[in-house]
Records
---
Amino acid sequence: ALVAQNKWSKRHLSWRIRTFPKESPLLGRDTVRALMYYALKVWSDISPLNFHEVAGNDADIQIDFTKADHNDGYPFDGPGGTVAHAFFPGERFTAGDTHFDDDEAWTFRSPDSHGMDLFAVAVHEFGHAIGLAHTSAIESIMRPYYQGPVGDPLKYNLPYEDKVRVWQLYGVSDSVSHTAQPDDPSQTADPPVLLDLPENRSTVPPARDSPDRCTSHFDAVAQIRGEAFFFKGKYFWRLTREKHLVSLRPAQIHRFWRGLPTNLDSVDAVYERPGDHKIVFFKGLKYWIFKDNNVEEGYPRPISDFGLPMEGVDAAFVWLHNDKTYFFKDNHYWRYDDHLRRMDLGYPKDSTLWKGVPPQLDDAMRWSDDSSYFFKGKEYWRVVGSDMEVEAGYPRPIGKDWLVCT
Amino acid sequence: RAAPSLTAEQMDMGVDWLSKYGYLPPPDPVTGQLQTKEALTKAIKAMQKFGGLEETGVLDQATLGLMKTPRCSLPDLSETEVMVGRRRR
C-alpha cells in the first residue's frame, strides 16, 4: 500500500449531489442519491466517520456529474478512459469533492453487465475522499481499474485490505470488532442497524394493548434495508439481518414511521421498492411512500395508482429472481414493474401457480438468503431462488424461527 | 522502440498514460526532452507490477490493453512520490 494521504480532522462530514447525471430511465435522481448514500455508508459502517446529506453549498463532499475539461486539472475523456475522481482531504476547497464523467453509461445492477456500475465506482471514489490512495492489492476496491459491478449495495462488504487501511487512518468504529479477521464470517464488521432508531424510542414502554409476538397473526412482514419488520396492530418488531430481535418489546409504528396517521390501527402490506429503496405501506385502498423514516409529500394515494383491485392487498414483496414486485390478494397475484412504474400484462393470475403457497396471505417478503417467505397465521413457507414452489419441510412456526419463541 | 510491433501512436499513448498516472514525469516543458529508455523501462515495469502483469518492461499488448481499461483519474503513486519525482527531474 502507498503512504496514506491526508485525513479529515472532523468525524461528521456533509455531502451533497450538486449536479446529477443525464436523464436515464434506470437511474433517476432518487436512485443516484440512494447509491451515494450507500456508497458512503460502506465507509462509515467500519470507521468513526459519519456522513449526512445537506442542501447548501457548504457540503464537505460535493458530488458532480460533469464531462470533458471541468477546470480542476483532471479533464474527463469521454466514454471509457478515466471515469471518475475524488480529491483527498486537506485544506483545499475542493477537498473531498467527487466527480463522475457524465459521458459514461452509468448503470445500477444492470442485468447484462453493460455500462459502468455507479455504486462500485462511488465506493472507490469515496475511499479517495476520506484519504485512501490507490493500491495494487488484488482484493481491494481501491485498485485504480474498473472491476465491474460489486453487487447489491445493501450487502456489499469491503475487502479486508480496505478496512485495515481505513482503521489505520481513523481508528475503528465503536460498533466494529477489533478482532475481525479476513474470511471469518462470524466476525462481521457491519453494524446491523440500517435505519435510524434512537434508543429512547425502543425503551418507551408499550401500551397495555401491545400484542404478543409469539401468538400474533401478523398484519404485514417486510424486509427493509436488509432487516426484517413484523407488523401487528399499531406495533412492530424488528430483526437485524442476522435475524436477531432488536428488542423483545414492540415499537409503535407511528413513532418510527413518521407521517402515518396516528389513528392507524394496522397496516396490510409493506415492501421496500427496488431502485430507489423507498418504502411503501398499504392499508385498505390507500398507500404511503416513505423515504427512510419519513413519509413523502402527497400521500396517502389510492392503490389504483398501481393498477391494483379495489379490495386492497394482502401481501407485497420483491422477487430477487427478477426484481419485480408481486402483489397478492385472496387467491390472485399481480406482477408490477417498479422501474417502469406499471403493472405487467397478463395479470392477475391464480396464486396456486405458486405451488404450496396458501391463499389469503398475511404478507410475504424477500430475505437475504435469496429466498422468498410467505406468512399466514402462525406459520410461514419458504420458496428458494427462482422456484415457484414451496420447499419441502414447510410450513414452519413463525414465532419459533423468527421471534425467539419456544 | 519498446516492442517490435508497437506503432509511434501507441508509443506516444503509452508515454502519455505513464505520465498521467504518476509513473513517469512528463516531458520537460522547457526543453521538451523526453524520458530516457531506462526511465521508460522502469516506469513500465512499475505500472505492470501495480496492475498485476508480468514485469517485462516493454509496452506489449497486455500492457496496452490494461492502459485502455476504464479507471479512476487519480495517479497510482501518492502525491508525495509524484512530487519527489518532479524534484528529481
---
Amino acid sequence: MNLFRLFGDMSHLASILILVHKIQTTRSCRGISFKTQALYVTVFVSRYLDLFYDWVSLYNFFMKVFFISSSCYILYLMKMKFRPTNDPSIDTFRIEYLLGPCAILALIFHYKFTVTEVLWSFSIFLESVAILPQLFMLQRTGEAETITTHYLAALGAYRAFYIPNWIYRYWTEDIVDPIAVTSGIVQTALYLDFFYVYFTKVLQGQKFELPA
Amino acid sequence: APTAHVKDEL
C-alpha cells in the first residue's frame, strides 16, 4: 500500500458517503443516474467474487464488502425509499452499448481464460465507462446540485490517484497491470471535462451550470 | 517490467 492508492481508496469511500448523505438529507435522488449506480453494483459484484476464495488483507476484505453493500443500499434508496424522486425519463443513456463492448473486450483481454478472471476484466472495463449515464444526464439537464458535484469530483479523483500509484509500483515493485492501467487512464480522462467546470465554477462558489 | 494481475488493488 502506498499513499497514492490510500488517497484513492479514501476518495472512493468519501464519494459514496457523500452520495448517501445527499440522498438522506435532501430526501431525494434527483440528479443521480440510476443506471450508473446499477452499473457500479454490477462492477463490484463481478470483481469481488474473489472474496470467497482469495484472502488479501483485512483492509481489502472490508473495503470490498463495503463497496458491494453500499452500492446495493443506494439502489434500494433510489428504487424503494425515495422512488418518487427518481426520474427515469432523463436517465436515457443506452447501457447495452456499454455492457456489450465490455463483455467482448473482456473475452479478448484477460490474464487467464477462467470465469472469474474474465469477469474481473469485464468489471475493470465496465467501471471505466460506468459514469457515462451520469455524465450524459448532467449534460442533458445542464446543471447539478453542488453536493452532487462533490460526489462526482471525489469519484473522479479516486481513479486519478491510482495513476501515480501505478507509476510508483512500476518503479518500486517492477510490475504493470496493463488492463487496469489502460482502463484507469480512460476512466480518469472521462472526468476531465467535468473537472474543468468543477474547478472553475463550483470551487469558486458558483453553481454547476454548463454553457447553453 | 513483467505484467500481472495485481490482486491487492480494489
---
Amino acid sequence: LERSAGSFSYSSYHTLEEIYSWIDSFVTENADIVSKILIGKSFENRSILVLKFSTGGSQHRAIWIDAGIHSREWITHATGIWTAKQIVSEYGKDDILTNILNAMDIFLEIVSNPDGFAFTHSMNRLWRKNKSSRPGASCIGVDLNRNWRSGFGGNGSNDNPCSETYRGPYPHSEPEVAAIADFITAHGNVKALISIHSYSQMLMYPYGHSLEPVSDQEELYDLAKSAVQALYEVHGIKYIYGSISTTLYVASGITLDWAYDNGIKYAFSFELRDTGSYGFLLPASQIIPTAQETWMAIRTIMEHALNNPY
Amino acid sequence: QMNFTGDQVLRILAKNEKQLSLLRDLESLKPQKVDFWRGPARPSLPVDMRVPFSELKDVKAYLESHGLVYSIMIKDIQVLLNEEREAMAKSRR
C-alpha cells in the first residue's frame, strides 16, 4: 500500500522511523512548497532533517522552529508534525500565514535529538539527553540545551556527565547542536527562532544565563504577552511568560541565548502542556489541542517578525 | 525497555528558598535516583520529581522530616507507559 501522509495519524505518538517515513511522504505530496534538508548526522550517525517551507525567491528572511531537543518530551515532536501539516493546509487560506510565507521561509526541525528519541522508544522512555559518550566519561549523554556557545559553563548547567543538565566538554561539542548552529550561521538571514520544549506552560525569551534584561526586553515581553493571549483563546490554557532566568531558573549554554547573541532578536522557547497530571507522559488525546493552541502563538510571533524587519 | 513499575512522580510545593535548596540537596543525596521533571526553580512554581519505587520510602521520609508538602502526581509510571504504548499500537493497527 503506497504510504501517504494522509493516512498518518496526527493524534498519535510515533517512532523515529515512522516520523522519517512521514517526512518523505509529506515532502513528496507537497513538493511545491516543502523540501527536506539534511543538516548533519547525530552522534550515532542518524540523519538530522529539517523541513523547509518556501514559496521561492532567494535570500528570504527566515524563521527557525525546532522540537524534541529533549527526547522524552514527545508532545513537542507531535506538535512539530501537526504544525508542518497546518502550514501546508493553511497556505493560501489563512491571510496571515500566506503573507508570512510569501515573504519569509520557515525551517522546521521536528526531531532535534534523534538518538535520544530512538532510545525513548527502545530502552528508556524518560531519557532526556543525546547519546554521546566519551572516553573517561562515566555516563552517557549531553543535555543539548546546555551545550551552546553562549554563557557556556555558567550556573544552571553541570560539568558532571551523569547529570541531566551535563553541558558537554566544550561548546558545540555535540553534533546535534553544531548542525543547527552551522546551518543558521551559514543561512545568515534567520530573524526568528522558536524552540519547543515541554512541560510547564511557559513562553520565554532570553536571557537564561543572566538575570540582566536583554536590550529588546520590552518588545519581547509585549510579543510574548500577545502570543500567550492568542494561545489562551483556543482552549483556555494559561501560560506564564518572561525571560528564562526570571520566569523559570538560570540556565546557561542554551539555544535561545546563542540565537539572541547571534543577532536573532525574536528568540522564544515554549514549554508546552502538561497542566499537572501527566508530566512528560501527556496522553495522545491532548496532541491536537496542544498543537492547535501552540500554533496560534507561533503564528503571532511569526507575524510580528514579518511586520518588523530588522 | 526500562521498567518503571511502582515509580511515582511527586509534586512538591516549596514554600521558600530554603525548602528549594533542600530539594536540590536531594539530587546529590540520591545521585541518579531522583529525576526532576520540573526542577526546583522558584517558590511560586511546583517541583515535580520522579522517584524510583525502591527510594520512595526514604524520599518521602526526607520530605516529611523537612516539612515539605507533597502530593502524588503519578501513582505508577509504568501504568501510564503501558497505556501510551497500547495507544500507539492501536493507532498503528
---
Amino acid sequence: GGVGMPTGSYVAPKTVWLPAMKAKGLEISGTFARRGGIIQMDLTLTNKAMSVMTDFAIQFNRNSFGLAPAGPLQVLTPLSPNQTIDVSLPLSTSGPVMKMEPLNNLQVAVKNNIDVFYFSCQYPLSLIFVEDGKMERQVFLATWKDIPNDSEAQFQIKDIHLNSDAASNKLQGSNIFTIAKRTVEGQDMLYQSVKLTNGIWVLAEMRIQTGNPNYTVNENQETWRMAPFI
Amino acid sequence: ELEDGVDEAFSRLAESRTNP
C-alpha cells in the first residue's frame, strides 16, 4: 500500500489455475490471502460450457502445512453459461500433513454436476505466518546462537527501493517482525522473526546498505529447508 | 538492567556479523 494505506499482507492477482479446456468448460482462477489471521482462498469460477453447472464441492489433498477448507464451497445458485462468480473459501491449518514438492504446493479437486477436476496451485508461505510471531528478544539471541551454521541460508533481494524502516513496516503487514535494528558501518542490520502455523520459528537477519537497492537476507531455521520459499 | 544487556547483545551480534 502507498502512503496512508492500511498495512496488510500482499495479495497476488488471481491467476488461472484450471483452464476451461481442461475442465469441460469450467474455468477457475484464484489467489490466497491472510486477513486478520483468517486464511482465504479467493476463487473466480466461470462457466464457459453450454450447460448450467451445479453441485459444486472442493477438496484438498494432504499438504505441507495441513491447509484444508474450513467450510463448503459456497456456490449457492446454479452457474449459467458465460456466468462468473467470486467465492472466498476460508481455510484451516488443521488438515492432514504431508510434505509436498515444492513445499508450498496444493493439490485441489473441484467437482460439479459434470465431473471432478484436479489442479495444483502454489500459495505464498506468508499465508501461514502467524500474528504472534514476534519472538522475545532474549529468546531470539539465545536461539540464534544455538542454530548450527549449516542451517543458515543467504539470499539477495534485488531492486528494493525502500529504506529499512519502510521495509520493516511493510514486512510487519505480513507477520514478519523486526526484533532489533542496528547500524554498523553504514549498513542497517535488521533482526527478524517469523512463526509458522505449525509452530516452527524462522529467524532472519536483513542487511540494507543505504542507497543500495539490493538487500541481503540470512535466514535460520532447522527444519525442512524452507528458506527459499520464505 | 536486563534490557540494557539485550540491547548490547544485539549490538555485539550485528558487529560480529559485519566483521566476523
